Amino acid sequence: RQDALAPDLVCYNVAIGACARVAQWAEASGVLGALRRIRLRPDAASYAAMAGIAQGRWASAVALLEEAQCDGVVLSKEHYSTAIGACTEAEQWRLALGLFGQARAARVAMDVLAFNMALGASDVGASWEDALAMLSEMMLPRVAGDTRHDAPRADVVSLNTALGACRRARQWSRAVALLSLALGRGVPALGGALLAAASAVQWPAPDVVTFNS
């Protein structure tokens, strides 16, 4: 009878979710700890609920990923996206890019939002090489039936963010080449937004050149 009344994993996950809805991180962490003390192993739902309140807590978000892996949980793009976003907000851009690379190596299907978060990390760190590598992957030509390229198609946010990384690194020629490539590959929704994307790059004033007669 007592075993029948003992809370199971579903009950604990409901409690974690309730804490998450009101952004009570300490309480949710306490429930997760109580779950472990009765020798129940958190599952994907447990960590998904915890990830929902890890925004702005980059160290906690990364620790959650590590704990989930130790518990044998198959991490999803939501788990990674939360940690990448939290690291980017805290300007931990190298860590954010490392997590993105980890997700790609694990063959986690990352959507355009996740790619744009990683591009945001490259913008924060002025890591134009990473930005252009990601954007180039997003703009690879698609062939019907070819599943080798699982990166989502770039959108205007992707382009703007990559341009931002080039701007911070003062890679003006790379930015020009990027705009040219985007036009050639037909990035969706460019149209009138291309001008706005170009204006995101604050072009330097031209050097004054004098000629001696």
What does this structure look like?
The chain is mostly helical. It has twelve helices and no strands. It has helices at 2-5, 9-21, 25-37, 44-51, 58-70, 77-89, 93-105, 112-124, 128-138, 156-168, 172-185, 193-199.
Percentage of β-strand residues:
under 5%
The number of distinct β-strands equals: 0
Chain-averaged pLDDT = 79
| Relative helix content | 55-70%
Q: Note poorly predicted spans.
A: 1-6, 205-213
Rg from alpha-carbon coordinates: 22 Å
Terminal CA distance: 103 Å
Order of helices and strands, N to C? HHHHHHHHHHHH
Count of individual helical segments:
12
| Overall spatial form | elongated
The biggest sheet, with number of strands, parallel, antiparallel or mixed sense and barrel status, is: none
Derived structural class: mainly alpha
Features of the shown structure:
elongated, disordered N terminus, 213 residues, 12 helices, mainly alpha, 0% strand
Brief summary:
The protein is an all-alpha fold and 213 residues long. It has helices at 2-5, 9-21, 25-37, 44-51, 58-70, 77-89, 93-105, 112-124, 128-138, 156-168, 172-185, 193-199.
